Amino acid sequence: MQTLTEALVKSGVANRVLRDEHLADWLEGSAQRRYNLVNRAMAAGEMVRLARGIYVLDPKIAGSAPHAFVVAQHLRPGSFVSFEAALTWHGCIPEAVRLITSVVPGRRKAQFSVPLYGDFRFVPLALRTGCNLVAVRRVQFTGGIALVADPLRALLDLMCWRKIPSESAVDFLEGLRLEFGCFDELGADDLARMRGVYQHRRMEQVVDQFWQWYRRR
Hints:
Protein name: Transcriptional regulator
Organism: Wenzhouxiangella limi
Order of helices and strands: HEHHEEHHEHEEEEEHHHH
Oligomer: single chain
Distance between the termini: 58 Å
């Protein structure tokens, strides 16, 4: 076992996402020494580079791998998992999701193809000031904490991103085959709060269309 791998296992962080700036907490010496140790661990197949400056230990050594949502959090700090990935995790839609899509602050989108995990996409949405984390929860997963949209937030983010017009909202909702139990605890206050999240007036109408459709079910 390589020096770096052994140090991480002994420190109890073997199943976490590892960043260059954190390696100094577990390794003595210069930045060049840490760089050399990382390269040796990767050459030995004990460490996998996910993106620039972001790594995980091989799951066979660590015993488990960080959850994909935790990886997403490290790829773009400040983002949160939403859209189909969050809906699937909550059990709201039946389809398996291969692409994990997150909402990211700002205006720049990004996409990564990550070893061991697959594809991640980060997209900005037009949100009102201070509303980025409305109806978003902190969840403990294997390897750390990730931010995940609640079911209604994930659904509305998806409709916002796809620019679903209010007059087509019901057809879109019908096509998703939603599990209605995901929304059992929703009340009028939740809908009122979500009406104020998005900049586009269209989304206020979409929220209203969802609520009318849901109450008819």
